[in-house]
Design brief:
The chain has eight helices and 14 strands. The chain has helices at residues 26-37, 50-60, 90-104, 161-172, 195-206, 223-228, 240-245, 257-267; strands at 8-11, 41-45, 65-68, 73-76, 81-85, 108-113, 120-122, 136-137, 149-155, 176-182, 185-190, 213-217, 231-234, 248-249. The chain is globular and about 55 Å long. The model has no long low-confidence stretch (mean pLDDT 95).
Amino acid sequence: MSPFPYRLVATDLDGTLLRADESVSDRTRNALAAATAAGAAHIVVTGRAVPWTRHILDDLGYEGIAVCGQGAQVYHAGEHRLLTSLTLDRQLAGLALSKIEAEVGPLAVAASRDGLDGEVLMGPGYRAQEGPLPYVPYEDPAELWSAPLTKLYIQHPELGDDELTRLARETVGGLVDVVMAGPGIVEILPLGLSKATGLSLAARRLGVKAAETIAFGDMPNDIPMFGWAAHGVAMGNAHEELRAVADEVTASNEEDGIAVVLERLLAS
């Protein structure tokens, strides 16, 4: 068997590594295990903050470094500790939020607090996704700004995700970054932050270069990661913006798209 061509396999979670029920198939687990046995490291790179990621990593038996919070947090899963954490300037975030609302009207807002146990706060009208992820409702807007944040989530009662993302970027692009991370998930982040930011930090700790990395994803927030890695693989269920910049498109997350590619590389 030829050596595995990459030293690092970077995978997004939702819509990529995880199936709709938040499980990882045996086939994909086995393919990742074979790639690591062949000398590659596997690193999870997710938009989820650590508190919403930790239980999945524990279930996978994952003990390495993970990149969470759209690159804001580099987390050591085996030691259950944050290695780096970047917060959102709350004054800038408040200004950005007011500018966006002046352009598109009132928004429903949620926020992810910093830290290993940072709560996710959800304001009136914010549509929470079904599932086990915990959140704390709030009524008083002052609660939103009372502790350090990693990001804000915004929703509009009428605009779709792509349109809201576009308009928000056009309005506040010089203050903060705005990304679409999944259905109903439009996020306000520190300017310049992306999955590529966190992945490059984590890779440096592992002694791995971008040219040695293959990355898998499904949403526009994975575009910077694809730009950083040597080879970007979009899932069959991926957003059209990511498919447009991918080096290849594999099967969907429900059809073991990661395993399809890794098995091919292992056999070649």
